Each structure stands twice: as C-alpha cells, then as structure tokens.
C-alpha cells in the first residue's frame, strides 16, 4: 500500500489527461479513508499532488476526489498545521468561492476548510485567504448540503473571538438562522453550532434572536435525538443570558425549556436549568414559570446526582426566592430539603446558590421558622466558618445567618450551633459585603441582652472593633450598632473601653452619615453611663464633635449627643472640658429645640454644668440659661422639673 501511495503521489504531480487525473484522485481519496495513512500522505507530499489535481483538472470528479482526500487527511489533528504549511488554503478557498465550480467539489473544499479550522492556529491564515467570504458564498446558496458544510467550517472559525465580527458583517447570522429552519437535522445542528459560536460574544445574542432563531430552536426541540436536544438546550442557555432576550425567550420557548428539564439527559437538563435560572433573573417571569408548572421539575433536579445540574437548579430557585410573593409556593413545593442538602456538597455553585436561596427565604419571619426547622443553621454555620471555602459561598451563608438573626427566637439555636465563631472568622475578610453581613448579624444578636455575656466571652469585641475600622460606611453602621447594643449591659461598658472601642467610635463622630451618627452617639451615651468611662471618653477627644452633634437637626443624634455630654458632665473635670470647648452657648440654644427629648437632655447637661466654677455659671447666666432652667420648673413633665431643680 505504501508503494501504491508513493506512485499515486508522484503521478498526481505530472498527470494531465482528465481520465488519468480522475483515477489518481480517486486512488488517493480511497487511501485517505485509512486513518493510519493520513500522516504518510502528508509527509510524502500528497497534499501538493491533491492541490494540483484540484486546481488543474477539468474533470469534476477528479476535483471532488482531490478535495475529499484533503478533507479526510485534515480530519487528523496532527496533520492540520502541516497541511496548511503545504499552501493549500488559497486553492481550497478559491474553489469554494467560485459559483461556477462543481457544487459537490465546493462542499468537500468547505469540509476540508472546516477540518483545518478545528486547529485554532490555522484561523488567521484561513481568514487572510478570504476563507470567511468563500464560506459565506457557499452558505447563501439554496442547497442545504452546501449550507451544512459551510456552517461546519464557520462554526469552528466562530470559536475565535477575532473573527465573529466578519461572519456577522457578511450576513452570517441571518443565513445561519435560515439554514436552521430547514428540515435536514444535520444541517440544523451545524447551523445551531455556528450560531452558538457567534453568541459566545454577548453582543450578538440579541441580534440572533432578532433574526428569528427561536423558531427553528423550538422546532428542533421536538425531536427525540439527544444530540439535537443538547444543541438546542445549549443555545437557549446562551441566548437567555442577556437581558434583551429574556422576555421573548420566555414568551416563545418556556414550555420547550420546561420539557427539556424532563428529558432524562444530564447535559440537556443542565442547560435547561441554566436557561430557567437566567430567565428568572427577571421577577416579571416568575409567575409565568409557575403557570407552566416548571417549579416541580426544577426542585427535582436540585436533588440530581450531577453537581452541575444541582448547582444551576439551585441558582434558579435562589432567583425565585428573591420574590416574596413566590416564597410560600417554593416552601410548599419542598425546596428546603434540596437546598439544605446542597449546602453540604463540596461544589462552589451548589453551596453559594443554596445559601443565597436560604438567605432570600429568610427575609420573612414565616419562612425563617421553616428554614430553621429544616436544619439549615448547622450547615450554614459550617459553610461560613470554613476557611478553605469559596468566598462567595461563605458570604451568602453569613447573609442567611444575618437574616435569621433578625428574629430573636432564633438566637439560642444559632449560638448553640457556633454562629459566633463563624461570624468572627469573617470579620477581617477583605470582602466588604462579607464584613457588612457579619456586622448585620452581630448587630442583630447584640439586640438581645441575654446574648451579651457569651458574645463578649467568646471574643466578640475585637472583631467588632475591627469592623468599626473598616473602609465601608455601611460596615461602620453595623459595627457601631453592635457596640451600642453590647454597651447596654453594665458589665460590658468598661470592657468595650478597655478593648479599644473608644477610638473607632470617636473617629466615626466625623461621619456625615445620619445612621452612623445615631448609632455612634447612642453607643457613646451608653458607655458614658459607666463612671469609670466618663473621663476616658472626654480624654479621647469626643467632646467637640459631641457638642457639634448636639445641635443636629436629627432628633436622635441631638438627644443622644446631649445625653452623653450630660453624663460626662457629672464629673467636675469634664465640666471644665465641655465649657472650655465652647459647650455652654450651644447647649442653651439646643434647650429651645422643637424636640422634647432634646430639650430634656440639653437641660440636664446645662444643669450639670451649673455645678462647675463661677466662670461657667456666669456664662450660663449671660446666655440666658438660668431663665430656661427656671421655665423647666413650670413644666408638667417630672423629668423637666427634676432638671430645673438641679440647675
């Protein structure tokens, strides 16, 4: 066979008669069907002989056999670079492009180009040789078989992002959609594969839908051929990922997608789950999915043995769970069991999307009870506490725990399952959202006085102080809220100061955020109730900003700042500091506030300042403060009477 091959190759270079050319081309084509000879044909110079026959022969059959032989040799991956190096591209491209050439020969040339294009390193040479233009000429013929071969080659070229624009500019999207509408299954598959290649670039996905690709997709989905269903489901997955397509895909293909959820083929089901997850990113489509009874198969696939399918089903359910109107339906359908199980699977998508689903469900008290009853807290804590776990999964686990902690009834079981150490482990994370969710959870837990002792015993103050130094204002607010909550307990007041909590709280007094200032002023007010803290607060520089905030237009900030200063002014040393920092005149002004709470605390502050030296008392009298204190004695409010009497 080797001698025959070499003889044919040699003859192919010099033969001139059409009949002999045909015989040589047929012989080489026949030998090219033997895969073990592919490499030998190329190495012995067979490609040059075949190119010579393709370009020089006037016999259509000789041209067909030559093109087919090149295509067969190019089916071997190890030959593709060498074949291109032989200089065959120009001949293949020119023959494919010429409308007057034999149509079957053009098809075989397109097949050869497609096989060569399976090697990414050949793409640039094929495109430079005007390969895309030639393939588009063949694709636009009305011959389905020609379209199939052209689509095959374009599919391989479309894998390269640098060449998709040219395919689209040449009208490739519309032509491929037209081919996908034919009745030939193989042509449909090749067209869909090429379209999917184009749609790797998100920019082209709306264009392909506008060109009408959904019609052939829906028709192709009616087959029992698994390979076709895989192609269709993958296409819908790709197309549904862009916002512009979601509504139309849902309107025209939702029943098709749901049917593929029940296909029994793992790959098809996975792509169908992806498509559903993409679509239900729009809350407007949630009702449509439920109407089409798509929830039950989705929940079933969340228990699939295939982790990728399970992860995508979890993503879809998590998106649905973000809609409060759908949550009770989800719970009735039994989503909690697969979501809790998915938390324990060592897969990134399963963990992060099941945690996100539970976080979404835990936004309502009615759902929280069922989430806790389903045993979700232990795996959530384990996921949040896992230092080797993926950050996003841990973040969503903490979000779920933060939402659950909004209900005091859940605190005991959460603390029992070790939630505190899990939260503390993420307090110094570089991820801002994780810090924020940790802060939310700790702030919620600190609202219950019964939790204060264990939170401090297990080392909760340092993580909170770390969060108070974070760069994000939202994190500041939650950390300050937690410190404010813990400082309600008498035994914690000194510990917060000793652990270094005063410095970040004082720094946060410079914030312009109303919510942060409310928490910080309230926290400092709580701390100032401890006698051992009064001088420390004044010494750390809190007095000037507190005087400023006592004049705030916000009632809570002003009242808490005045109350804190009033507590500090119970010490003679602090009275001097407040007076020296110019606190007398603003206090007198604030006593005229339209808020009763602010008036009461400002009056208490002024009354305490009256106990200071004669210079401060003179300042109070000159400012008219004594008259305001006298007016307090005429009030029906007991607290006002007490303040007026003290003053």
SSE inventory with pairings:
Elements: H1 2-14, H2 18-31, H3 38-43, H4 46-56, H5 60-74, H6 80-85, H7 89-97, H8 103-116, H9 123-128, H10 131-139, H11 144-157, H12 164-169, H13 172-180, H14 185-198, H15 205-210, H16 214-220, H17 226-239, H18 243-261, H19 266-279, H20 286-291, H21 295-301, H22 307-321, H23 324-333, H24 336-343, H25 348-361, H26 365-373, H27 377-385, H28 391-404, H29 411-416, H30 419-425, H31 432-445, H32 452-457, H33 461-468, H34 473-486, H35 490-498, H36 502-508, H37 514-528, H38 531-539, H39 543-549, H40 555-568, H41 572-580, H42 584-590, H43 596-609, H44 614-622, H45 625-632, H46 638-646
Helix pairs in contact: 1-2, 1-4, 2-5, 4-5, 5-8, 7-8, 7-10, 8-11, 10-11, 11-14, 13-14, 14-17, 17-18, 17-19, 18-19, 19-22, 21-22, 22-25, 24-25, 25-28, 27-28, 27-30, 28-31, 31-34, 33-34, 34-37, 36-37, 37-40, 39-40, 40-43, 42-43, 43-46, 45-46
Describe, in plain words, how this protein is organized in 3D:
The longest helix has 19 residues, at 243-261. It is elongated, with a radius of gyration of 38 Å. It is built from 46 helices and no strands. It is mostly helical and 647 residues long.
């Amino acid at each position: 066979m080797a001698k025959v091959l070499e003889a044919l190759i040699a003859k192919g270079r010099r033969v001139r008669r059409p009949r002999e050319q045909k015989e040589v081309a047929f012989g080489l084509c026949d030998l090219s069907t033997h895969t073990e000879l592919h490499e030998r044909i190329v190495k012995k110079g067979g490609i040059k002989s075949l190119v010579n026959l393709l370009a020089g022969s006037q016999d259509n059959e000789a041209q067909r056999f030559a093109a087919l032989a090149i295509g067969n040799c190019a089916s071997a991956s190890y030959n593709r670079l060498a074949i291109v190096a032989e200089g065959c591209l120009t001949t293949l491209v020119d023959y494919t492009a010429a409308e007057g050439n034999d149509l079957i020969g053009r098809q075989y040339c397109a097949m050869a180009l497609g096989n060569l294009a399976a090697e990414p390193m050949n793409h640039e040479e094929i495109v430079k040789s005007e390969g895309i233009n030639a393939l588009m000429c063949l694709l636009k013929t009305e011959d389905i078989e020609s379209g199939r071969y052209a689509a095959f080659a374009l599919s391989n070229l479309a894998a390269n992002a640098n060449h998709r624009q040219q395919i689209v500019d040449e009208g490739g999207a519309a032509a491929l959609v037209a081919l996908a509408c034919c009745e030939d299954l193989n042509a449909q598959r090749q067209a869909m594969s090429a379209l999917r290649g184009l749609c790797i670039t998100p920019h082209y996905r709306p264009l392909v839908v506008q060109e009408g690709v959904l019609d052939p997709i829906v028709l192709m989905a009616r087959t029992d051929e698994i390979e076709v269903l895989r192609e269709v489901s993958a296409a819908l997955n790709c197309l549904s990922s862009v916002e512009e397509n979601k509504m139309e895909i849902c309107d025209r293909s939702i029943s098709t997608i749901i049917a593929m959820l029940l296909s029994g083929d793992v790959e098809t089901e996975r792509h169908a789950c992806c498509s559903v997850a993409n679509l239900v990113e729009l809350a407007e489509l949630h009702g449509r999915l439920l109407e089409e009874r798509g929830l039950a198969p989705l929940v079933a696939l969340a228990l699939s043995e295939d982790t990728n399918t399970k992860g995508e089903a979890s993503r879809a359910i998590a998106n649905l769970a973000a809609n409060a109107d759908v949550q009770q339906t989800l719970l009735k359908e039994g989503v909690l069991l697969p979501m809790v199980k998915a938390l324990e699977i060592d897969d990134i998508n399963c963990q992060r999307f099941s945690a996100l689903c539970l976080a979404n469900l835990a936004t309502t008290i009615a759902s929280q009870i069922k989430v806790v009853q389903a045993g979700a807290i232990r795996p959530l804590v384990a996921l949040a506490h896992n230092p080797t776990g993926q950050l996003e999964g841990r973040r969503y686990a903490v979000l779920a725990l933060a939402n659950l902690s909004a209900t005091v009834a859940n605190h005991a079981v959460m603390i029992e399952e070790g939630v505190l150490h899990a939260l503390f482990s993420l307090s110094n994370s570089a991820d801002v959202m994780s810090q924020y969710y940790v802060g939310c959870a700790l702030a919620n837990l600190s609202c219950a006085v019964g939790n204060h002792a264990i939170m401090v015993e297990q080392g909760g103050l340092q993580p909170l102080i770390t969060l108070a130094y974070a760069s994000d204002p939202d994190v500041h607010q939650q950390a300050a809220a937690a410190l404010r909550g813990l400082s309600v307990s008498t035994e914690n007041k000194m510990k917060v100061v000793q652990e270094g909590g005063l410095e970040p709280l004082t720094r946060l007094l410079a914030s312009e955020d109303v919510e942060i200032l409310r928490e910080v002023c309230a926290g400092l007010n709580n701390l100032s109730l401890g006698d051992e803290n009064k001088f420390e607060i004044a010494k750390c520089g809190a007095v000037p900003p507190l005087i400023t905030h006592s004049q705030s237009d916000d009632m809570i900030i002003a009242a808490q700042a005045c109350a804190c200063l009033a507590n500090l002014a119970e010490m003679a040393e602090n009275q001097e500091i407040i007076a020296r920092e110019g606190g007398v005149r603003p206090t007198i002004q604030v006593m005229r506030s339209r808020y009763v709470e602010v008036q009461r605390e400002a009056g208490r502050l002024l009354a305490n300042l009256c106990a200071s030296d004669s210079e401060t008392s003179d300042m109070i009298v000159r400012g008219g403060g004594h008259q305001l204190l006298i007016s307090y004695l005429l009030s029906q409010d007991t607290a006002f009477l007490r303040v007026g009497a003290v003053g």
